[in-house]
Amino acid sequence: MPEQAVSESRVHAPVREILERVLAGGRATAEDAAALIACSDEELPEVMAAAAAMRDAGKGRTVTYSRKVFLPITNLCRDRCSYCTFRRDPGDPGAWTMTLDEVTAWSRRAGRLGCKEALMCLGDKPELAFKEYRATLAAFGVASTIEYVGRACEAALAEGLLPHTNAGIMSRGEMAMLRPLNASMGLMLESVSPRLRQRGGVHQWAPDKEPAVRLRMMAEAGELKIPFTTGILIGIGESRAERAQSLVAIREIHERYGHIQEVIIQNFRAKPDLAIADAPEPDHLEMARAIATARLLMGPTMNVQAPPNLSPHEIELFLAAGINDWGGISPLSKDYVNPEAPWPHLEALAERCARAGFHLNQRLAIYPEFITGEWVDPAMMPHVARLAAQLSTEV
């Protein structure tokens, strides 16, 4: 039997019809997304092949990454997600808040190592929970965490890096304040499932993980014309259908505002100190289903990413499932959210991409298609233009 016929015989009619319609230019529906993400193991290769074809049509065979320094501004956080080992209370072993001198020193070292992005990553609104931290902010001469993040962004800019802020929930006013100091911003949607906020759910003690709150911030970022990164976290108690619903919610916001520059598919990683340390991690096929569904739902021009340090053995599989980006990779700082997972060496990653038929290219914290006066604040444009020009000479 011809190979194509064998492949088709394993794909049920509804899934095959979805793939044919979407590859012909049709728009995947929410029902389509639910069906694709629930495809069988036998159907998955065909779904992945369709996603890869769509990626090739929109992005070619180039896969990108951002060379960054991960700046953990503070790991104090008012939320208590049961899968997080990053957050601390004041006085806990390993609790910290970076000084501006440290931000400057790290940014300077990062620039010397060829980094162009400064990722500002921190806990959600710790000043609302900890009087000790409010005293720290007062000693720094600021009234809020976001004001302090703005100072940190200024320090990174002074060292030639482009800030990308992921500070949890921010108000519209706070994002507007940071826009002239950031090339882009981000917030993981994680999941739209309200079940995760219920008793026993991973977000029970995390008020900032309320899906409606996160969706509102994403929409307000769109209204402010901020290039935005978001995504889903799989393996935290959500169903496949809820993963599809989360991706649909991201697409709906992007269709209204056009500002989602990147969608991340991130897998939960179990760690010994977690409240859910015994929870199973999503396997490589679950990741491939989510990646392929994201591509087929979001279309050929969306940037779809999966973190390579969290799945170091699945580089080739994720490329085959339709990604076109590896996210931020640092030659200087570890992944403080997943410290057990080292970043890949860029030379080795480039070689693996090449063997799979892809060329690895560096990008900025803002994707090229967003480097316009509509999306970049006038105060940021000289910084972005300078590094874009520099990057073009390095490629």
Rg from C-alpha positions? 21 Å
Q: What is the element string, with H for helices and E for strands? A: HHHHEHEHHEHEHEHEHEHEHEH
The pLDDT mean sits at 95
Shape: globular
Number of strands: 9
Percent of residues in helices: 40-55%
Q: What would CATH call the class?
A: Alpha Beta
Main structural class: alpha/beta
Question: According to CATH, what is the topology?
Answer: TIM Barrel
Main sheet makeup: 9 strands, parallel
Q: Low-confidence stretches at least 5 residues in length (pLDDT < 50)? A: 1-8
Secondary-structure blueprint:
Layout (H helix, E strand, L loop, with lengths): L2 H7 L3 H11 L6 H8 L6 H16 L2 E13 L25 H13 L4 E6 L8 H10 L4 H14 L3 E5 L5 H7 L5 E3 L24 H13 L4 E7 L5 H18 L2 E8 L16 H15 L5 E2 L9 H7 L3 E5 L16 H10 L3 E5 L17 H14 L1
Parallel strand pairs: 1-2, 1-8, 1-9, 2-3, 3-4, 4-5, 5-6, 6-7
Helix pairs in contact: 2-4, 3-10, 3-11, 4-11, 5-7, 9-10, 10-11
Description:
- There is one protein chain.
- The protein has 14 helices and nine strands.
- Helix 9 (211-223) runs parallel beside helix 10 (240-257).
- The chain has one domain: Aldolase class I (TIM Barrel).
- 48% of the residues are buried.
- The chain is of the alpha/beta class.
- Strands 1, 2, 3, 4, 5, 6, 7, 8 and 9 form a nine-stranded parallel beta sheet that branches.
